[in-house]
Design a protein that fits this description.
14 strands; alpha/beta; 5-stranded parallel sheet; 6-stranded parallel sheet; about 15% strand; globular; 12 helices; about 35% helix
Length: about 400
């Protein structure tokens, strides 16, 4: 990992971060072409692109209800229980985010307020490339269901035999998804003969998905344009180097473009963490991806004190921030920019990604300076309400 050592009084600058954007010019051009083709040719274009990118030419896109109902029977019971457990905790957390309409009457008799209304329809894109993401179904569909959205559509690329993984189908069922289609997300914004358009599109994806969301934004709502995933770990002398190494690797194994930042207080400790990384790589099933991510996107920041470390964290504005430090809660008030904060050595990022309850769809690429995690708020809209009497007017 690249290393920067700061002396007392030196400031960490955003120029020290070598971030990769959410998409490039090639992805933008390709996504534009695909979207225009789908708008022009509808289902025929969807079939062509599904065959081209996924190796399957579907006759029908929608997953029949029977296949959804039968998915639970094909699923390992432990996986089914894990999905149900995660869904309960995600729903419980997001229920607390619900807002009510509100009104008040001034002394002159005028009534003003806000009416909160769920969106009519949302579309959730679930990736189907390097790995399967039933957790993304739960994290996107459950807030929409809690908000009261009536039509929740999930689109995800099919496997080579044209089917969907049982865990994806079961996650859709328990999260309240109303329609499932085995296609990419190109049809959600404008619709085709088989798929009605939606009001908002959410969900993660690669550079092409990010580019497509940018293109359709404005015609439909989007949650965010997410870049490569990232973690920042702050570790002091009380932290176990092996656990810190594991938490960095858990992010790095996602993608060669995933970014890992390690903020420490002396170089000897940084050396110890890097030695543990090398040791764990020997038994990793994703060693090549992990090593590439850490070598190309990894950064170690050595700070002289906590104040300098906190300044560095707020400049990085990471998607995930782990505080492997003594009395981690005492630092929380000083954290201004982070998508999610994980306090203490026993709170790895993975617990937030899957079961803790808070949403794992988080702002990336430094956008935590102004953006928030996906929430129930993304699936409602607000209308101002005004009523004057003749006397008030």
């Amino acid at each position: 990992m690249r290393r920067i050592v700061f002396k007392p009084g030196e400031q960490f600058a955003a120029s020290s971060i070598n971030r990769t954007g959410a998409f490039n010019a090639a992805a933008l051009a390709a996504a534009t072409s695909i979207i225009e083709e789908v708008r022009a040719r509808g289902d025929a274009a969807l079939r062509d692109f599904t065959e081209k990118f996924d190796g399957v030419r579907p006759r029908a896109f929608r997953v029949p209800q029977q296949a959804i109902d039968e998915a639970a029977g094909r699923l390992d019971p432990k996986t089914a229980d894990a999905l149900a457990h995660a869904a309960r905790q995600i729903r419980e957390f997001h229920e607390r985010q619900k807002q009510q309409s509100w009104f008040f009457v001034r002394e002159d008799g005028a009534l003003v307020g806000a009416k909160v209304t769920p969106l009519d329809s949302v579309g959730i894109y679930v990736p189907g490339g390097r790995a399967l993401y039933p957790s993304s179904v739960l994290m996107n569909a459950l807030p929409a269901a809690v908000a009261g959205v009536g039509r929740i559509v999930c689109v995800t690329p099919p496997t080579k035999d044209g089917t969907l993984d049982a865990a994806i189908l079961e996650a859709c069922r328990i999260a309240g998804v109303t329609e499932i289609y085995t296609v990419g997300g190109g049809a959600l914004a404008y619709g085709t003969e088989s798929i009605k358009p939606v009001d908002k599109i959410t969900g993660p994806g690669n550079a092409y998905v990010a580019a497509a969301k940018k293109i359709v934004s404005g015609d439909v709502g989007i949650d965010m344009i997410a870049g490569p995933s990232e973690v920042c770990v702050v570790a002091d002398k009380t932290a176990e180097p092996s656990l810190v190494a594991i938490d960095l690797m858990a992010q790095a194994e996602h993608d060669p473009l995933a970014a890992c930042y390690l903020v420490v207080f002396d170089e000897a400790y940084a050396d110890a963490v890097e030695r543990e990384v090398e040791r764990h790589l020997e038994s990793s099933t994703r060693a090549e991806i992990t090593a590439a991510s850490l070598a190309d996107q990894g950064l170690v920041v050595v700070c002289p004190d906590r104040e300098a470390a906190l300044r560095a964290v707020n400049v990085i504005a990471p998607e995930h921030l782990e505080l492997h430090v003594e009395d981690a809660m005492s630092l929380l008030g000083s954290i201004r920019n982070a998508g999610a904060v994980f306090l203490g050595a026993w709170t790895p990022e993975a617990v937030g990604d899957y079961v803790a309850g808070p949403n794992h769809t988080l702002p990336t690429g430094g956008t935590a300076r102004y953006a928030s995690p996906l929430s129930v708020d993304e699936f409602v809209k607000k209308s101002s309400v005004i009523q004057y009497s003749s006397q008030a007017l």
